[in-house]
Give the backbone structure.
Amino acid sequence: MSRLSPLDIKLFRDIWHMRGQAIAVGIIVACGVAIMVMALGTLSTLRASRDAYYERYRFADVFASVRRAPEGAASRLRAIDGVQTVETRIVRLVILRIAGVEEPANAQIVSLPDEGESTLNRLVLFAGRYPEARSPNEIIISNAFAEANELEPGDAIEAVMNGRLRTLNIVGIGDSPEFIYALGPGTLLPDDRLYGIFWMRRRALEAAFDLDGAFNSVSLTVAPGTDTASVIDQADDVLAPYGGTGAFDRSDQLSNAFVESEMEQLKTMARIIPAVFLVVSAILIHSILNRLIQTERQQIGLVKAFGYSRWEIAWHYLKFAIAITGGGVLAGYAFGFVLENMITHLYAETFRIPNLTWRVDGFSLAVSAVAAMGASIAGAMSAALGAAKLSPAEAMSPAPPVNYQQGWLRYLLQMRWLDEPTRLILRHIFRFPARTAANLFGVAAAVMLLVGTLFTFDSMDDMMDKMFFRTNSHDAAVTFFEARNDTAVSELARLPGVLTAEGVRDVPARLESAWRSERVGITGLPSHGDLRRLLSADGQYVEIPAEGLTLSSQLASMLHVTTGDVVTAHVLDGTRPVVDLPVTAVIDETIGSPAFMDLATLNAMMDQPPSVSGAYLKLDPLHQTDFEDSVIQRPGIAGVSLRAAAIASFEQTLQETIYIMMGVYAVIGGAIAAGVVYNAARISLTERGRELASLRVLGFTNNEVGYILLGELALITLAGIPIGCLGGIALAHLIATAMATELYRIPVIVDPSTLGLAAAIVLVSSTVAALFVVRRVRSLDLIAVLKTRE
Amino acid sequence: MDHAPDLPDTGGRPDALMWGKGLERTFRTGEVEVRALRGVDVSLRRGELVVLLGPSGSGKSTLLNILGGLDRPTAGSLNFDGRDLTAANDAELTRYRRRSVGFVFQFYNLVAGLTARENVSLVTEIADNPMKPEEALELVGLGERIQHFPAQLSGGEQQRVAVARAIAKRPQILFCDEPTGALDSKTGVRVLEALERVNIELSTTILIITHNVGIGDIADRVLRMQDGRIIEETAPNRRLKPQEISW
């Protein structure tokens, strides 16, 4: 190994000498890198695990539901060009009774072939065995449900199947790629305690649901290169006579769509948030290097006089930036691994993918290192080139004195009512506008990042408020197996404990506008209903118009339509009418991209007697258990969900993660503020140390000198906070827009308390950083200033 | 001590403003020990102008640092106007410098961001009974240039601003460390004139340290230091005017 050159030795000594500032910048780089490593690494882990799971357990490409189709229809599906494998099955929602659980729970029960394993959407068996073909009561239950309810093979569970209470024996615990994210009816987040997936032999389900020789669900795979849309069209044609509700591909498969949506959000996170850190780190490196070069002017001149080239000088200072950033990158890897591990654990709770464990992702490491180095070199370049350009003679003479006599500074000169230290602070702020702007930006960036991340908690509150209180004031939602005459609603209203009941009807349809097409559910709501209401974008209640379609704003933007436009609705149920409908209102919904119609108008369009597919109920809290006992014994009821249980589950999930996430955000936002303030204070101290020491000699106290040193930063911090708040609100809009998916949209709600929290975090971390520097004021060398020339 | 406790301790000299007895200062860096002061006895009388001469390394700066409250002696005792400074803590020394002491540095040490007038008022703001900044600048002959920033002033003018800054709070004692060291003879004389005027008109005690022997001619007393000791004390028959000397 060759010996280090003297310049490299100097480099290491410079870094050691400026280690406080190097660490401050390193931490900011580390935060940016860590978030990028975490987001990209988790994305890669999630994608790789999911893809492997899908492939190994043969996740289907196309899915369809029908009311009841004879097994013979399957061969016509197989005949479609490009279709490889077809598997028919029976899928039904059932109501559960679990010992020790008061609320009604639901399960989706999925058939297994009578012999052996499924061909598509195959099971991973974690424990136990497959049900015996001849045993009608044996089931496999999903892993998450088993864990949440502490169930294991050998235990039994009661389910209401087609109105009959049955005892089912658990023989195995498994999962399938179809239910990575298992969302029960009427819920926003998975609730593993109240919703599970069961697998049962087909023969037993045929008997239970009167579906002998028939199926109500089918999934299929297509050959690579096949046009899936065309397969879907042909499958729809085959299945329409049997009550097909429209085939769909993986992008509309709920579980897959949630995983995709999460991956999109990780991508957004990796793009936006680290950028803020890297821009701040670039600015800090620029200011540190500028200052270093100012102090080393004479040395640069000397070294150049010795014959070092411009390039060697520039490279020397670039290496300074690269070394600091390199340290930050390595620390960022370590911090990123910790975050990634944590997030992967969280995901493993939510997304049921086997072997979802953290692994090192080379790509994310490389990308983040390149981004961090790029930002750092960009920040260092102009300072390094400036050093390279100095002519030796010019460099070896002292830097020209700073002239404060600048045109518009004359105004400040007149501010007689200020004391001298304060005037000094103000002059300094205005004399170096670029530096002031950089520091202001740094502080504002910290506030911005905090507001831009912490706002999600306000948004969650708002979503909860809208979902659970403003739009849904029912206590229970009941789903029927299929559309029923609306007398079913009055029957429900007569059940014990029910105060009022309102029917609702969901009809699957494909909405088309020009070449755009979306498969949605149109929900029919009763006019003047109270239990499910709609809100406009400005939060006002909207009555459902008697005519036409009411679209959520997401769906309206997906179809590129607005109020007054006409869309074509291909209804995928009943007589499958095709109707042109005017868009009569656009409303605000946070979850999904729904469409609504007046219930009577919807029924008229379907050319059917008044029908409902479910109902919203208001319950008497004193008789809620009576209701729960009686409702599950009613025939034709597929699921019951209680709003209170949904709220509790939502809150519990939030509380489990909220403090961790808030803590992480606070630490990284605070790190930026602390880094910026520490760095600015150190630079100021280096530049003005002599001046400040002179003042100490003249009798100024440490605090008075500290005021001059830090007053400027205090002013900049205070000015940066409101700017950062505005920037944060803008960032929140950017993040919300980038993260919006068909499944949900984050409303941009920034509560004043969030602005206050962001400001407080920045103030506290800035103060701590400043105190570190104030300590150095005490050790100013008072004697040296008497003897040394500037 | 047999004098009355409410009378100032003058170290045996009835008119002494400040005195030090047996002052020693030892610096240690690792194994090396440097004795910068080896038992110095010194006293400064009220209204007196004293010049302290000595070659580099003789200990004159160390003595000035101790007298000026920037450093503490390793041994010996120090008294200012009856107050014992030997064991004063940082806050007490800061108060001493703030209330009683003026400093003039070799390299002026003005604050670049403040005008001449503001540099002076920086000090008058924290003083108990200061003169007006304009008055102080007038005294050093800079009444016309009070709105100029340091970058717009010559070296001699900057040093006179520094003198104005030092005297504006009416200190009892003024310490000047090579006040003409960075100036040519002609400019240096103007600075000395300013100091002389302060000494005569305000009766401020002044200690000038320098290795410029010629400056000794304007003093009431000249002290010579060598190897950490005062080796000679002389009093010229007649104090010369600054205009009468040159170097």
Summary: Chain A has three domains: 55-257, 432-471+648-790, 472-647. Chain A has 22 helices and 22 strands.
